[in-house]
Specification:
The protein is mostly helical. 71% of the residues lie in helices and 0% in strands. It has a single domain (10-220), classed as Fumarate reductase/succinate dehydrogenase, transmembrane subunit (3 helical TM bundles of succinate and fumarate reductases, Up-down Bundle), CATH 1.20.1300. Helix 5 (65-88) packs antiparallel against helix 6 and helix 8 (155-182) runs antiparallel to helix 9. Residues 248-261 have low confidence and may be disordered.
C-alpha cells in the first residue's frame, strides 16, 4: 500500500527554527531599532538643535549607514513581516505558542501587525530617501526638524501617524509578552503577570515617546528651526574645512554681530 500523505512543506519541516527566528527578530534588531527611533524622535521636545544633533550623530556613519540599515532594519523587517503574514494565513501553525492568550489580545496582535507593516512602508516611502523615486523622501537629515514638520503638517497625515505609531508600539509591547512564552521564559501564572506588567510599562513609555514626538514635530516653528539647522550645518561644514552654504548668517557671523552691538 503506497503512502499518499502529502509531503510536508518547507515551513512545516522547519517550523520550530523559523518561528523562533521570527520571534527573536521582533526583539532584536527590530524592537531595539523601534526604541532608539522613537526616543530619537522624541528629542524634538528639547528643541530643533537637540533633534538635529541626534540625527547628525546617526548620519555621521556616512557610507556605512545604508548597509547597516539594510542588514539590521529592512531585511529583518521583511523577514518578520513575511513570516507574520504566513502565520496569519495559517500557513505556519501557531497553536502552542499562545496557549494563554485571549482571543481579543491574539486578534489585536495580528491586526496591529498588518497596520504596522502598512504604516512602515508608507513612512519609509514618505520620509526616507528610498521614497524619492516615488515622490517621497521628504525628510532632509540636514534640516531634520523643519523637513519633518512640513511632512507632518496635514491633520490627516498626523492622524494616520498616530494610528501607525500606536499600532506598532502595541505590536512590539505585546510581542514581548508572547516572546517569553515562545522561549519558555515565563511559564507560571505569576511570571506571566509580571511579564505582562513590564510589557504594559514598555508600551506606555514608547507610546508617550511616539505621540510626543509627533506633537513636537507638528509644533515646530519651521523658520526658526531652519535658522538653527543652518547655523549647525555651517559649524559642521567649517569643522570639516568646507565653505558654509549661502543663506542665513553663520554662527561665527552672528557671534561677531552680537559683539559689535
Amino acid at each position: 500500500m503506497s503512502d499518499t500523505s502529502p509531503t510536508p512543506t518547507f515551513l512545516a519541516r522547519h517550523q520550530f527554527l523559523i518561528y523562533r527566528l521570527f520571534s527573536l527578530s521582533g526583539l532584536v534588531p527590530i524592537g531595539a531599532f523601534l526604541v532608539v527611533h522613537l526616543l530619537t524622535n522624541a528629542s524634538i521636545l528639547g528643541g530643533a538643535a537637540s533633534f538635529q544633533s541626534r540625527v547628525d550623530l546617526i548620519h555621521s556613519l556616512g557610507p556605512l549607514l545604508v548597509p547597516i540599515e539594510w542588514a539590521f532594519i529592512f531585511l529583518p523587517m521583511l523577514f518578520h513581516a513575511t513570516v507574520g503574514f504566513v502565520i496569519i494565513a495559517n500557513g505556519l501553525p501557531n497553536v502552542g505558542s499562545y496557549p494563554y492568550v485571549g482571543n481579543v489580545r491574539y486578534t489585536l496582535q495580528r491586526a496591529t501587525g498588518m497596520i504596522a507593516f502598512a504604516f512602515i512602508i508608507w513612512h519609509v516611502m514618505q520620509l526616507h530617501w528610498l521614497g524619492k523615486p516615488f515622490g517621497g523622501g521628504q525628510f532632509d537629515p540636514h534640516h531634520a526638524s523643519s523637513s519633518a514638520a512640513v511632512a507632518l503638517a496635514s491633520p490627516l497625515v498626523a492622524i494616520l501617524y498616530a494610528i501607525g505609531v500606536l499600532s506598532t508600539v502595541f505590536h512590539f509591547a505585546n510581542g514581548l509578552w508572547t516572546l517569553g512564552i515562545t522561549w519558555g521564559l515565563w511559564t507560571s501564572p505569576a511570571a506571566m503577570r509580571r511579564a505582562n506588567a513590564v510589557s504594559v510599562v514598555v508600551g506606555v513609555v514608547l507610546a508617550a515617546a511616539g505621540l510626543g514626538a509627533l506633537g513636537g514635530m507638528r509644533n515646530v516653528d519651521v523658520e526658526q528651526a531652519r535658522a538653527t539647522e543652518k547655523r549647525m550645518d555651517d559649524v559642521r561644514r567649517m569643522l570639516e574645512g568646507q565653505e558654509p552654504l549661502p543663506g542665513a548668517p553663520t554662527a561665527t557671523r552672528i557671534s561677531h554681530h552680537n559683539e559689535e552691538r
